[in-house]
Design a protein that fits this description.
Elements lengths: L3 E7 L5 E6 L2 H10 L14 E8 L2 H12 L3 H8 L5 H6 L20
Antiparallel strand pairs: 1-2, 1-3
């Protein structure tokens, strides 16, 4: 059965790169060697593998990669440190205009 890996690299500039592959060793070699001069990590080397999760289904791996790519730095750092519980806290909207900060507001006019 083929395995697929979603991985996060920490770049030299402190940013994170998230990717998916079916050959983690080959892919890490490519990132570390600068194999692709147009890649995000090429000018941010050295890079270090800080997270790797495997999947048996490519569709699940791709969906997880897309989800993680959409996350901010704090969420990525939560899973890197294996603190999955913190994701719920980090997902709560703290924007003062969020509906939960406004209280109940009926769509009906006041009488």
């Amino acid at each position: 059965m083929k395995q697929y890996f979603v991985y996060i690299l920490k770049c030299n500039d402190g940013t994170y790169y998230t990717g998916v592959t079916n050959d983690i060793d080959r892919r890490l070699f490519e990132h570390k060697s600068g194999f692709n001069g147009n890649s995000y990590t090429h000018f941010r080397r050295p890079v270090n593998l800080v997270f790797c999760e495997y999947f048996n289904d490519i569709n699940q791996a791709i969906a997880f990669e897309k989800q993680v790519k959409g996350w901010g730095k704090k969420k990525k750092e939560a899973i890197i440190s294996n603190n999955w519980e913190k994701l719920k806290e980090l997902s709560v909207c703290k924007n003062r205009t969020h509906y939960s900060k406004k209280g109940f507001d009926s769509a009906q006019p006041d009488k």
